[in-house]
Write a structure and sequence with these properties.
Shape: globular
Helix content: 25-40%
CATH topology of one domain: Rossmann fold
Largest sheet: 3 strands, parallel
Mean pLDDT: 93
CATH architecture of one domain: 3-Layer(aba) Sandwich
Number of strands: 3
Strand order of the largest sheet: 1-2-3
Low-confidence stretches: none
CATH superfamily of one domain: HAD superfamily/HAD-like
CATH class of one domain: Alpha Beta
Strand content: 5-15%
Structural class: alpha/beta
Order of helices and strands: HEHEHEH
Number of helices: 4
Length: 89
């Protein structure tokens, strides 16, 4: 199951984990069952702040160094890498 929530009035902005925490609560999943996928350091930091695993995508807005510096658990060079990472969790 997936849930997408974006910026909304009154909610703090990323890297605050509130939106991620709200999604996990709605879906009744724990942080260890959740993966945040993003292409910026802010996405990775948001996942870290929520206690989730994180996947940085190299083909996005930022470069590999920024994703690594943010502490991404895994770096995907191509979309198929995301599936491989999740299947190996």
């Amino acid at each position: 199951m997936k849930k997408i929530l974006g910026n909304r009035l009154g909610a703090p902005h990323k890297p605050d984990p509130r939106i991620v925490n709200d999604i996990m609560r709605i879906l009744k999943v724990e942080s260890h069952e959740t993966v945040i996928i993003g292409d910026t350091d802010i996405d990775i930091l948001t996942g870290k702040n929520a206690g989730t695993k994180t996947i940085g995508c190299e083909w996005g807005f930022r470069d590999l160094k920024e994703l690594e510096a943010a502490g991404a658990d895994f770096i995907a060079s191509r979309p198929e890498d995301i599936i491989d990472f999740i299947n190996n969790l």
